[in-house]
Amino acid sequence: MTEKQHAMGFFERYLTLWVGLCIGAGILLGVYAPEFAKALDGMSVNVNGAPVVSIPIAICLFFMMYPIMVKIDFAEVVKAGKSIKPVTLTLIVNWTIKPFTMYAIAYLFLGMLFQQLIGADAVDLVKMPFGLDLTVGSQYGSGMVVLHEGVKMLAVPLWRSYLAGCILLGVAPCTAMVLVWGYLAKGNAGHTLVMVAINSLVMLVLYGVIGGFLLGVGQLPVPWEALLLSISVYVALPLFAGYFSRKWIVAHKGLGWFERKFLHILTPITIVALLLTLVLLFSFKGEVIIQNPLTILWIVIPLALQTILIFFITYIAAKYWGFSYENAAPSALIGASNHFEVAIATAVMLFGLSSGAALATVVGVLIEVPLMLVLVGFCKRTQNWFLG
């Protein structure tokens, strides 16, 4: 890929600023026009009278995911064997270490150190698991079934709802932004692309399995049907759409037109869809944030520590496994970053647009750009570690 394609564009470079502005806009919308966001969220696919998929959010999230998938050349996946050690390390870190360290760190901070600050008795109303019909007053995990505006909901401890969002981030490795981080760190672009493709395929199988397991350990609702539906809608659908549309466009327009024109058009669409989603999410959490503005900080701390921990685990392992710098840097950056698009989509589908879980996944977006840029800078300053 060319430098122009990899370099951070206007939207990507100031993503943290746009996220901050959308947080403010969403909070103001929630305070001064709460019915607008509720009306949009009311446009949903219902099952047994309960909203399962918010149509506006589903549309936004598809346009967040599709451009990621369409960039992937799956023909490169078959060549991954040439760099088997980097591929192996990345898979081990992403699927056998990262989800569990995320759970442990989030539980330590949100469930123990910060629980009183969040509010030991504070509760969050989340969706009932898809297909489950319990009577009001029943216990399910750590939650109790309540009737809210005529719909059965689960009242769970607020800190556990935040924990759920962290879990969904921890089992969602590698985003399209990794292509940018790898380029800025002067890493192996081919390896980065291959791992994006492999992680996308692995997510089809392991995201629901590991995510469901950890949610169960955390005494949170484990909506298996909704997890499978989420993977189908937000991973499989854009994955196949990206594969077939890329194949058709390249065949009819050529690879050069695809890379120079088509991808250039898609990039701002992706960011705009993300930002619109954030406005809706924060419009529902405005009151909570205004009452306790430190809420964001309590979530940021475990997420930031997890990112740094996974980066150094991978980076140091790569050094002692004899990697070149060009493979070590993207391997560590892939492990450290999160597929926040999928995490947001899943949190909204499983727990609801107004849930603490959805808020926690959005915080992942807030810290992604500045923290990853710091780690990119660290990589560039330590290239000499790998010269020998």
UniProtKB/TrEMBL annotation:
<dbReference type="InterPro" id="IPR038770">
    <property type="entry name" value="Na+/solute_symporter_sf"/>
</dbReference>
<comment type="similarity">
    <text>Belongs to the arsenical resistance-3 (ACR3) (TC 2.A.59) family.</text>
</comment>
<keyword id="KW-0472">Membrane</keyword>
<feature type="transmembrane region" description="Helical">
    <location>
        <begin position="265"/>
        <end position="284"/>
    </location>
</feature>
<keyword id="KW-0813">Transport</keyword>
<dbReference type="GO" id="GO:0015104">
    <property type="term" value="F:antimonite transmembrane transporter activity"/>
</dbReference>
<dbReference type="InterPro" id="IPR002657">
    <property type="entry name" value="BilAc:Na_symport/Acr3"/>
</dbReference>
<keyword id="KW-0812">Transmembrane</keyword>
<feature type="transmembrane region" description="Helical">
    <location>
        <begin position="330"/>
        <end position="351"/>
    </location>
</feature>
<dbReference type="InterPro" id="IPR004706">
    <property type="entry name" value="Arsenical-R_Acr3"/>
</dbReference>
<dbReference type="Pfam" id="PF01758">
    <property type="entry name" value="SBF"/>
</dbReference>
<keyword id="KW-1003">Cell membrane</keyword>
<protein>
    <submittedName>
        <fullName>Arsenical-resistance protein</fullName>
    </submittedName>
</protein>
<dbReference type="GO" id="GO:0015105">
    <property type="term" value="F:arsenite transmembrane transporter activity"/>
</dbReference>
<dbReference type="GO" id="GO:0015297">
    <property type="term" value="F:antiporter activity"/>
</dbReference>
<feature type="transmembrane region" description="Helical">
    <location>
        <begin position="45"/>
        <end position="66"/>
    </location>
</feature>
<feature type="transmembrane region" description="Helical">
    <location>
        <begin position="296"/>
        <end position="318"/>
    </location>
</feature>
<keyword id="KW-1133">Transmembrane helix</keyword>
<feature type="transmembrane region" description="Helical">
    <location>
        <begin position="87"/>
        <end position="110"/>
    </location>
</feature>
<feature type="transmembrane region" description="Helical">
    <location>
        <begin position="196"/>
        <end position="220"/>
    </location>
</feature>
<feature type="transmembrane region" description="Helical">
    <location>
        <begin position="162"/>
        <end position="184"/>
    </location>
</feature>
<feature type="transmembrane region" description="Helical">
    <location>
        <begin position="14"/>
        <end position="33"/>
    </location>
</feature>
<feature type="transmembrane region" description="Helical">
    <location>
        <begin position="357"/>
        <end position="379"/>
    </location>
</feature>
<feature type="transmembrane region" description="Helical">
    <location>
        <begin position="226"/>
        <end position="244"/>
    </location>
</feature>
<dbReference type="GO" id="GO:0005886">
    <property type="term" value="C:plasma membrane"/>
</dbReference>
